[in-house]
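hey so i finaly got around to running the thing on Cytosolic protein from Bifidobacterium gallicum DSM 20093 = LMG 11596. pasting the sequence first so u can double check i didnt mess up the copy paste, my clipboard has been acting weird all day
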Amino acid sequence: MREREFWQLVEEVFGRSYGRALSRDQGLTRLDGMTVVEALDAGVEPRVVWNVLCDQMDVPDAKRWGKDHAAPPLPVDFQG
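ok and heres what it spat out for the 3d tokens, dont ask me to read them lol
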């Protein structure tokens, strides 16, 4: 997943305003409390950040990939 695709999903699943606010303000427990923006800036793969965010926000698998997206594979080293 590219970062551009990540931000498209944020808008589609959470809405533009709420998604951007969530990305700046919500600490992700499984990523040492980093926000989405901090995690991406730190080099965490967008696919991992997306799954952690969706898990924390209780987004079901059926809705987390939007209508036009296929779930990309998780990185080998991800501890789901």
